[in-house]
Amino acid sequence: MNYKIIIPVSIIALIILILAIVLPLTLRKKSLAVISPSLETPLITTNAVTTSSTTIPIIRNLIVANVKNSYRLTDDGQIQAWGPNDYQLMNIPNLPTGATKWISIASGNYSTHVLGLTDDGQIIGWGKNTENQLNVPSLPQGDKWIGISTSAFASFGLTNNGEIIGWGADKYNHNYLNIPTLPNGEKWIAVSAGNISVLGLTNKGRIIGWGDNRYSQIDIPNLPDGRKWISVSAATDFSLGLTDDNKIIGWGHNNYGEINIPELPAGATKWISMSAGSTYSLGLTDNGQIIGWGDNTYGQIDIPPLPSGATKWIAISAGLIHSLALTDDGQVIGWGNNLHGQLPSTNGSQPSSSTTSAPSTTSADGSQPSTTTSAPSTTSAPSTTSAPLSISAPSTTSAPSTTSAPLSISTPIIKYTAISAENLFSLGLTDDGLIKVWSNLNTSYIPTLPVGATKWVAISANSRESLALSDNGKIIIWNYFSKISNPLSFLPSGATKWVAISSGNIVSLGLTDNGQIFAWGINNYGLLNIPPLPNGATKWVAISSGISHALGLTDNGKILGWGDNFRGQINTPSYAGKWIAIAAGNIHSLGLTQEGNIIGWGYDYYRQINAPALPLGATKWISISAGFRHSLGLTDNGKILGWGDNDYGQINTPKLPYGATKWISISAGYRHSLGLTDNGKVIGWGDNQFNQLPPANYF
Asked: What is the distance between the alpha carbons of residues 383 and 368, in angstroms, rounded to a whole number?
């Protein structure tokens, strides 16, 4: 027998009324609610936007960690900020006309700009705008923005009709502003921008990537039949995705184990959110625990205990080298690097534009704030403010010069004794006299030893030509790209062999055993015209060739410069004592005194000639290296400090790798740097666009 249950219409109406009141109140609690397509922090979909084919949740970022700053969205829709005011990043703009509060914030961990999303669907940006990354495009009437994300040089917005729009600069021609076209019926519901690559999530549970793919960071892994993606987080070199069965999967670069997802901690049954940092990752579990994995140079995965009054974590954001988390009682806690006062726990917040109450939510946008960045970053060094990007030529010094690039660390099989960093590649010299090249631009071409030689003893890297010195005092000149090498046949009168080399941008230098300097190349600025020795000197003892100027050091401790002097880079300062080392950079110079002080001269826009104070435990500097727009110094207790331009992290010296007790050599290149340890490991940090940083399996 069939029974029918008849419910009066009045009762149904009463139930609907009760749900309409209770559900919004439940979702406004400061606890994890619905885990829908989120990018970095858990998301609440109280303000879902309905389109003709799908419901697109407004994904909200409540906390964001970028390069040097931290941001927090308060319950009443205000933005608070911590850190330095570079590019006016602390100057939160006023709300635009029509808006009553902020509902999301975005800033990638390599970004120097920030986006804010308002409750009426407007995007407002502040910070650096050299690439037009703040120039938000207009939408057709009736459309509005519901999601935001930033990369280093561009911005991305998600509209209420499921479109992703990008603006800014397509640096390095990776086409990351060219948004893929979706099939009919498929919409974008989330976007997460790495440094120069982007991930998008669709309403069909697909992740699609575009842009840079050097580390397979946009090669999305296949899921088992029936499974879907529900969240994405893009870093520079790797990516994370969350599946509908609450598993985190990583792909791409894995130098630090940043895609090796750990087991769930005790008491947790699933992951509910994740955030991809520069070289590390954070995951949030259903019982409110945070787990970190990957690089821990700055303690960025050392999760602190919950503060008093909190019972669990509800949101996470992994930045460049610091992390943020939000508790269920509304406290923002930071850990990791705090060089710029970016950690809320140690620096009072600065509230920005105020508005009226906004719902408390936990969500992530997929920009890079909580999910970002790319190239591994490194550790402690006195850094100066970052400056706009540009190009340079390798500089060499008494110690081979190098450049900055993201950090790579590993246990070495080979021991190195010398290093040299160039713009597009790096060179290393092993203890058995072999040369190693790091780059992805060509096969590793190494010249053949000259007749009578048994090993190489010195190297100097340059794109125009590189130099190698053999143990029998002969110089080989070779071009890494054309694979052509030739011995330097000339030897000045009275000399029996070459003892030092330095390859510059337009001129190379060689030093003989009897103290003569010989130059070859293009005679711009009179660079081939070696000056006569000053009074009291009998020979040259060191050489350094920069981009368009050169330096020589004499046996009585005098420095002479020649060539281009547009910025005063050859005007050696007056000094009564003896100089003991020299370094010619792009258009600046460094000298080391007998007392162990570093003095700089020439171009100083990036403060590259102003050496910092000695670190704790050091009594003097013992080595110097001048790069494109940054400089490095080595102390007597084996520490490396960097200063000048830091756009690529080239002055963020990493911690010593396992087994090493100190640094023994330095090389500042174009936009990356190299350090050599006392146990023969080569570590690189800064720009790694051409794989010029030694990978882990080379160590």
From this structure: 22
> In the predicted model, what is the mean pLDDT of residues 583-593?
97
Coil, strand or helix at 172? helix
Q: Are 169 and 132 in contact (CB under 8 A)?
A: yes
- Cβ atoms of residues 473 and 499 within 8 Å: yes
Q: What is the pTM assigned to this prediction? A: 0.50
Bridge partners (DSSP) of residue 79 are 73
Query: How would you list the strands of the sheet with 456-460, edge to edge?
Result: 456-460, 466-470, 475-479, 484-487
DSSP string, 212-266: --TTSTT-PPPPPTT--EEEEEE-SSEEEEEETTS-EEEEE--TTSTT-PPPPPT
**Residue range(s) of every CATH 2.130.10.30 domain in the chain:** 34-351, 416-698
- Are 216 and 252 within 8 A, CB to CB? yes
Strand order in the sheet with 621-626: 621-626, 630-635, 640-644
What does the alpha-carbon distance between residue 296 and residue 283 come to, in Å, rounded to a whole number? 15
Contact 577, 593 (CB under 8 A): yes
Architecture of the 416-698 domain: 7 Propeller (2.130)
508 three-state secondary structure:
strand
pLDDT of residue 161: 94
Backbone angles phi, psi at 698, to 5 degrees: -95, -10
Architecture of domain 34-351: 7 Propeller (2.130)
Please name the amino acid found at residue 658.
Y
Confidence of residue 481 (pLDDT cuts 50, 70, 90): low
Q: First and final CA of the chain: distance in angstroms? A: 79
Give the position of tokens 């911005």: 155
For tokens 């941008």, the residue is 505
* CA separation for the pair 542, 583 (Å, rounded): 10
| Predicted confidence (pLDDT) per residue in 204-218, tens digit | 999 999 999 988 999
Q: Pick the closest to residue 212 from 152, 122, 135, 302 (CA basis).
A: 152
Q: Select from 58, 356, 374 the least CA-distant residue to 212.
A: 374
Tokens 């090493």 identify what position?
A: 660
Distance, in Å, from the CA atom of 640 to the CA atom of 278, rounded to the nearest integer, reads 22
HEC sequence for 532-571: CCCCCCCCEEEEEECCCEEEEEECCCCEEEEECCCCCCCC
pLDDT digit string, tens, across residues 663-684: 999 999 999 999 999 989 899 9
